[in-house]
Every structure is written in structure tokens, then in C-alpha cells.
Amino acid sequence: MTSSVAEPILPAPLIPVSQAMDAAARVGAILMQSGASTESSVVAVREMLSGLDLAGVNVTIGGDAVIVSATEHGVPLTIMRTIPTLGANLERASMAHVLAERVHRGAISGEGIAPELAAVSATPAPYNRYVVAVALGIAGLAFNQLMGGTLTSAAVVFVANVVAHLARTELTQRKSPVAVTALATAVIATVIAAIGVRMGLAPMAASTFIPAITLLIPGFALINGLLDLSSLRYVMVGLQRVLIAVLTFLVIGIGIAAGIALVGG
Amino acid sequence: MDINAVLTNALWGAVMAGGLAVFFTVPQRALWIAVVCGGAGRGVRSAALQADQGLLRATLLAALAVSLVAVLLAPSQQFSPVVAMSALIPLGAAIDAFDVIWAAMQIPGTSDVTQVTALGADLIANAVTVAAVTLAIAIGFLVPWLVLRFARHTGE
Questions:
Q1: CA-based end-to-end distance of chain B
Q2: How do residues A182-213 score in pLDDT, each as one tens digit?
Q3: Nearest to B98 among A132, A210, A215 (CB)
Q4: Looking at chain A from residue 192 to 251, which residues have their Cβ under 8 Å from any Cβ of chain B?
Q5: B28 contact A CB<8A
Q6: How far is residue B63 CA from its own chain's centroid?
Q7: In chain A, what residues touch B88 (CB-CB under 8 Å)?
Q8: Assembly ipTM
Q9: Measured distance CA(A144)–CA(A157) in Å, rounded
Q10: Could you read off the pLDDT of B81-100 as tens digits, one per residue?
Q11: Closest CA to B133 of B61, B29, B33
């Protein structure tokens, strides 16, 4: 992507091949971890390598790692960076993409890459849990309106999202397993929605229950997973992501059923 | 065309995308990009549906709109278009996804073979719709971005 502020083009960076490959692999791992598609992550890694004057380098992204391999002085060299989780952090993804693009344009020196990468990795969460909870409530409320919900059902959905998110962050802090956290979150959100239905504030419909679990919708996993599968190049990562989405849907389903049963719907 | 419905859809799409952008840690300076993209996506989708384009084509056009707006706005603010990804979530086939979940939950408690068959058929049909719509979103968002990147690199 081009940037509006022109940066000076620096002399060709002179860093060892292994360091350059490691920097590129780190960018790929950060992108995969932050919700970028595999295709765009591979493009970013190749941009980095091209900006660092490295030709003939193989880039492979699997479900758990980014692997970059080449030869240095005739000796085969492979660098691997693991992808601990497939999450979503669009600030880091954006920073990593912009960094790759700047390296590609020669706007950043070889020595300048490591501090920039460290800054990307250390970027703190920009919002606290209460701000995120309210934002999720507003997103759920808007989702409810898009699905034709009433104003009172929108209020129910808002409360469900806020409470469910606060409960989820609490469980996450207590190191609760991911599936258990997702299930508990779905149950809490559904119970609140079902109470709203019983009180006559919301209809027993998709426009109440789906927006109530907005925070659990595995949108990125499904979008990126199907994209990876359809490319026919990243089938394993695609399967992993689609499976995560399907399992999340199953957990949501069980949570909704349990929540409705708890309230006696 | 019902302009009022298109604008209402765009408004709620923008609000939803903004809320989700906070959830997905989009930086404050880039939140407006996600909001504008969310409005553009749902607005285009609503207009295309009213023009009888069908759900798949309407979703593809909407994702293209999100991607094009992101590609135009984000780089000028030193961001990657990836900050607009939260604007894609409001384009998903939510009701079909809910029906898939609902049918999957009902099948185990149903003993009547005819009912199970009907639920199974519903589940498959809705799952295919969810997958097709999601793929349309993914392709619509990624293709313009990659094409522009490729064009810029070959132009250097």
C-alpha cells in the first residue's frame, strides 16, 4: 500500500541473510496471529524478503508456523517462527503490513527492522475491558437493528453483550480453557436474552439470540479459513481455521440450548 | 429503490463495524475508517438486494465496496486496509448461521425420521449458504487489495 507521507529511500540494508529471514518470518507470524489471511501474510513476508534483497527464498505457512528457507554461502538455512494462536488483533496486523511495505520500498534500514518488530509485538491493547464491553454492546445493538429487532430487544442484546464480555474476560484472566470460556459466555448471553424474551421485551427469534452472542461469532476464522481453502495452497491452515469456526458454532449452539433450557424457554 | 432502507442499513452497519473495530483492537485513529467501510458495505448490500441481485452477488459487491474504500482511505493514514476487516462481519449470513445451529441442536432430540430428514436438509442448505456468503465476503475483500498491490509492484 502506498503512504501519503514520503519517506527517504535509504541505502540497501546490509544484514545477515539469517537475520533478514528471521525478520520476515516474524512479520508472517505476527500477521497470522493477528487475523490476517494466509495469502496476505505470505505477500508481506515476500515483500520483506524482496526489500532486503533476498532472492530464491521459499516461504511456507502452516497452521502452527511460518517457515522461511534459503541458502547462505551455499549452506541450507531454515528459519521457523511459531504461530501460538490464530486470533484477531487488527492494530498489530496493520503495523506488520505497513512495516513489510516500508521494508519493501527501502524506507527502513536493515538495523531499524528489529526495534520496529519489537514495537509491533509489544503494542499494548488500546482499550480497556469496559470500553470493549460497551463497544460490543453497541455492535450487538446495531446487529439487532440490522436483523429487524425492536428497540427493547436491542436493549436486551446490549446488556447481554456487555455482561457476557465482562464474564469472558474474567474467565480468561483465571486461565479457564478456551472452550469452557466460550460455552460459559454463550450460556450467560443466552440466559440474559431468554429472560428478556420471558419478560416480553424481545421476540423469541434470531434477531434476539444471534446479536446477543456477537462477541463469539467466529467471523475472521471462517472468512480466512474459506479463503485459504479456496486458494488450494493453504489447505491445512484453512481446515484448521474452518474447524475452529465450526467448533465455535457448536459451542454457541450448546450454549444457546443450555441458556434457553435454564430459563425454561 | 427505497433510499431510506439503504441509509438505515448503512447507518447500523457503520455502528456495528465501529463497535467490532474496538473489539478487534483497531487503533483510535483508524476507527472512522472501519465505520465508513461498515456503512459502505451494508449500504451497497442493501441497494444490491433491492435491485434483485441476489444474496451472493449483493454480498460480493458489498465486500468489494468495503475493500475499495479501505484501500483508498487506510494507506493515507499510515494504516493497512486490514483495519477495515471488522466491516465485513455485518455482511455475514447471520440468520442462516442461526438456522444451522438451531437445526443441529434439534436433530439429537428428534425421533421421527421424516423430521430428521427435513432438519438435515435445512442444515445442509443453510450451511452451504453460510459458506458461499462467507467466501463471497473473503474474495470481495482480498482480491482488490492484492490486485492493487500487484499493480503497484509491477509498476515500480
A1: 44
A2: 999 999 999 999 999 888 888 877 788 888 88
A3: A210
A4: 206, 209-210, 214-215, 217, 219-220, 222-224, 226-227, 230, 249-250
A5: yes
A6: 6
A7: 219, 223
A8: 0.89
A9: 7
A10: 889 989 999 998 888 888 88
A11: B61
